[in-house]
Amino acid sequence: MTEKEENVGYCKVFYIKEIITGANHCGRISTRYFVSNLNFFTESQHHNTCLNRKISIDQNGNIKNCPSMTKDYGNISSTTLQEALNHPDFKKYWNITKDKISVCKDCEFRHICTDCRAYIENPEDIYSKPLKCGYNPYTCEWEDWSTNPLKEKVIKHYGIAMV
């Protein structure tokens, strides 16, 4: 995997050369996605490092925080991006920092790690740990999150096909 950053005028575009098979590709937590720079670290102190100031359009034209999230804020054919941004709930994830998230608040990597709110261990709790994180900060060990029997039910809930 190679990651590039390009300055295209008023914003930066980050992209990864990797095959993406669908929206459920999002949310994987891995050391290869860790970002160690002052801007990312500073943003992580007050904002969600995955969703802050982000807007996306899924394959059907639905405007969302992330293409993997179920909630949409209109369709690009009938809703402007500004209208979607002005929706009262659109920015509710922007300020969920790792210091507010169960388990993540105890993790030594919390300020260099991305954070998925689309796939979380408890879909009823927006502050629960990212589902696709296999790191345990209490034992300092990584495991394959997809083989954890405790996550089986929620993997089915999201309809994530495991290979």
Q: What can you see in these coordinates?
A:
Helix content is 13%, strand content 11%. The chain is low in regular secondary structure and 163 residues long. It has a two-stranded antiparallel sheet with strand order 1-2. A two-stranded antiparallel ribbon has the order 3-4. The longest helix has 9 residues, at 38-46. It is globular, with a radius of gyration of 16 Å. The chain starts with a strand and ends in a 5-residue tail after the last helix. The model has no long low-confidence stretch (mean pLDDT 86).
List strands and helices in order, with pairings:
Layout: E1 3-7, E2 12-16, H1 38-46, E3 56-57, E4 63-64, H2 81-86, E5 135-136, E6 141-142, H3 152-158
Antiparallel strand pairs: 1-2, 3-4, 5-6
Largest sheet: 2 strands, antiparallel
Strand order of the largest sheet: 1-2
Helix content: 10-25%
**Multimeric organization:** single chain
Enumerate the spans where pLDDT stays under 50 for 5 or more consecutive residues: none
Total DSSP helices: 3
| Mean pLDDT level | 86
Counting DSSP E segments of at least 2 residues, the number of strands comes to 6
Instruction: Briefly note the structural class of the backbone.
Output: little secondary structure
**H-E order:** EEHEEHEEH
What percent strand?
A: 5-15%
